[in-house]
Write a structure and sequence with these properties.
By secondary structure, this protein is α+β, with helices and mostly antiparallel strands. It has one domain. Helix content is 39%, strand content 30%. The chain is built from three helices and four strands. Strands 1, 2, 3 and 4 form a four-stranded antiparallel β-sheet that branches. A hairpin with a 3-residue loop joins strand 2 and strand 3.
Length: 71
């Protein structure tokens, strides 16, 4: 299985949005603050500005969770 993600990761203050690519198929995924706090190690109490600043790192940490949710 080939897995990757799109580089465009956005934080609108409530939802982190990005895309995962599995075997050439791109799927839009989202994570709210509760998911970030629960599944992104090191960001269990992240503030909005921290999520925005570290959105790529957070998205990478969420990849296993996002893949499970979208498989």
């Amino acid at each position: 299985m080939s897995v990757g993600y799109g580089r465009a990761v956005e934080w609108d203050g409530k939802i982190l949005t990005g895309s995962v690519v599995v075997n050439g198929v791109t799927t839009k995924v989202t994570a709210d603050r509760a998911i970030i706090h629960a599944y992104a190690a090191g960001f269990s109490d992240a503030l909005s500005w921290e999520i925005d600043r570290f959105r790529i790192e957070i998205f990478e940490k969420l990849m296993p969770f996002l893949l499970r949710q979208n498989s």
